[in-house]
């Protein structure tokens, strides 16, 4: 028989914030993000609600952290796709396809990611604080056809990928890899052909 009391079983973790984010990602993959509760998150991680509030003073702060993690994961997927395609124009096309595939593979995280942070204003030349936006702008400066403004090209490329992702997530267009490749490839061929 154990004599360990509940107070002796306190949760100790080298990075509680990271553990809370990872569990938050699991929770939003299981149900609507707006139904996520900080108390449930605390329970699932095995800490007190007070411990959660030390890292996230409210639900909005947690949602912003989850959205930031979504952007970081999206950027990583896009970098991997760019490198996997060998860079260049093919790599740029691969980043658009990776964007759509990320959305399809992570629908709740994708929706949350674009509902919470304020996106960079491409038309005002903002660099964007997230790596995905910076990567898009850097590629647009290289691949925008003359005399098109690279910011307009970036916004157009983002709009095509985001629009296709949303149409597929909402069931308006079949979630099919061949369609993803055809639409993203046709957009770039039209602009860069």
TrEMBL record:
Residues 37-56 bind DNA. One of its GO terms (molecular function) is DNA-binding transcription factor activity. InterPro entries: Homeodomain-like_sf (IPR009057), HTH-type_TetR-like_transc_reg (IPR050109), HTH_TetR (IPR001647), MT1864/Rv1816-like_C (IPR025996), Tet_transcr_reg_TetR-rel_C_sf (IPR036271). Keywords: DNA-binding, Transcription, Transcription regulation. Pfam families: TetR_C_33, TetR_N. It comes from the Bacteria. This is TetR family transcriptional regulator. It comes from Allosphingosinicella deserti.
């Amino acid at each position: 028989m154990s004599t360990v009391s509940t107070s002796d079983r306190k949760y100790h973790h080298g990075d509680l914030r990271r553990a809370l984010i990872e569990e938050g990602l699991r929770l939003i993959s299981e149900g609507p993000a707006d139904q996520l509760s900080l108390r449930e998150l605390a329970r699932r991680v095995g800490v007190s609600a007070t411990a959660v509030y030390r890292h996230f003073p409210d639900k909005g702060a947690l949602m912003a952290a989850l959205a930031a993690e979504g952007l970081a994961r999206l950027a990583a997927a896009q970098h991997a796709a760019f490198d996997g395609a060998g860079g260049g124009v093919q790599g740029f096309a691969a980043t658009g396809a990776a964007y759509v595939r990320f959305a399809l593979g992570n629908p709740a995280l994708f929706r949350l990611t674009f509902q919470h942070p304020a996106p960079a204003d491409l038309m005002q030349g903002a660099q964007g604080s997230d790596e995905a936006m910076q990567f898009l702008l850097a590629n647009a400066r290289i691949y925008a056809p003359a005399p098109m403004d690279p910011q307009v090209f970036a916004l157009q490329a983002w709009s095509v990928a985001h629009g296709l992702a949303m149409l597929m997530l909402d069931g308006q267009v079949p979630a099919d890899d061949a369609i993803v490749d055809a639409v993203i490839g046709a957009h770039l061929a039209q602009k860069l052909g």
